[in-house]
Task: structure prediction
Amino acid sequence: MVVVRMKSVFLLQLFYSLASSLYFHIGETEKKCFIEEIPDETMIIGNYRTQLYDKQREEYLPATQGLGMFVEVKDPDDKVILSRQYGSEGRFTFTSHTPGEHQICLHSNSSKFALFAGGMLRVHLDIQVGEHANNYAEIAAKDKLTELQLRVRQLVEQVDQIQKEQNYQRYREERFRQTSESTNQRVLWWSIVQTLILVAIGIWQMRHLKSFFEAKKLV
Amino acid sequence: MEEVRMDSLPHNGDEIDHVALRWSHPGKQLEVPCGLRPEPPELLSIMCGSRLLQVLCAQLLWVWVMGSELTFELPDNAKQCFYEDIILGTKCTLEFQVVTGGHYDVDCRLEDPEGTTLYKEMKKQYDSFTFTAAKNGTYKFCFSNEFSTFTHKTVYFDFQVGDDPPLFPNENRVTALTQMESACVSIHEALKSVIDYQTHFRLREAQGRSRAEDLNTRVAFWSIGEAVILLVVSISQVVLLRSFFSDKKTTTTRVGS
Result:
């Protein structure tokens, strides 16, 4: 006979439903954007859950079926790589093909103002990047790995991520260096050109005024 | 306290040596094996046969608490708040850094469920704050850019709650690990800190690069603008001077220097 005390389990379950992720409030037409600067070939998994404020019960309840969120993901070249509408609870995945700043934007698709009724929508969001996005239980089951093998696999994934990031870092440092060198060049050219313009203007002014005064018979 | 008797659950009459508790979240399954486990006190206990199985409740907590790392844009005169429900006794860390915008500073405030301010700093570029949750409930932290009139800021924050989820659902810290496994664990921790340093380095580099690009565009505009102004001023000087000596004037006016 096995007896399980479920009180703590329910308590934890309660906290789980609330504590699973960070949340924030979003207005009806508001668009919230998050930036992820990632190297290429990195997978990102985003999970979100929405809750709507119920005025009668004065608490946040899971949103109705009609209310969904529109998710748009842009790559560093401002090209849209994911643009989809999900329900009140959703999960979106994408893999980056170019390194750089990717922008993940969320906004609700509500066109019925009565739904929000002046309140806010509570959005629970969780974004997992790279190695954190891996589901190790799935990998272990698929490849039939032992505990030790799974741990080593996790280490390999982590080192992979570090390597990609270092690569990306090299590319960014190059861009930074190019920008600095371009600024250096521009300052150099500008100072030379400015000096030349100044001298030329000065000479022109003097010559012009001299000929003007001579014409006026003042000199 | 609610009790669920295992004999009421379907099983084929054999001695139960594995209890699987399936949570409501799809895809996540916690398997709790029966067996003897040492103290400390826990919230969940399972009795198998005649032995009491102690399962660390903290283990269940470990499965569920995670960290959140986000970078978002904070428009001028705006305030953005984030909330998280935290259980008593959890060690949490809030780290933030301003990536781009203006003077690279932001106001940050962290409040506990009763509204007491645990951390408040104005115009900070980056900071790290660790605290242990003294109460159960919703903790709120806000970033404010209300002091700025026209600069948008990009803010990165990392809010770690508790420990990272363990690799195996039935992992138990008190269980002895083999040398290989403990070597793996220490390498994992070291790599985590490497990734953390990399993130901070990336943010610093992004900050430096954004300043350099700003400088570059400013120099470009300024040099062109100044050349144009120079030409305009010098030509108008000459024109003005000529107008002083125009034939219409009968008296000789003293030309101002």
Observations:
- The two ends of chain B are 96 Å apart (CA to CA).
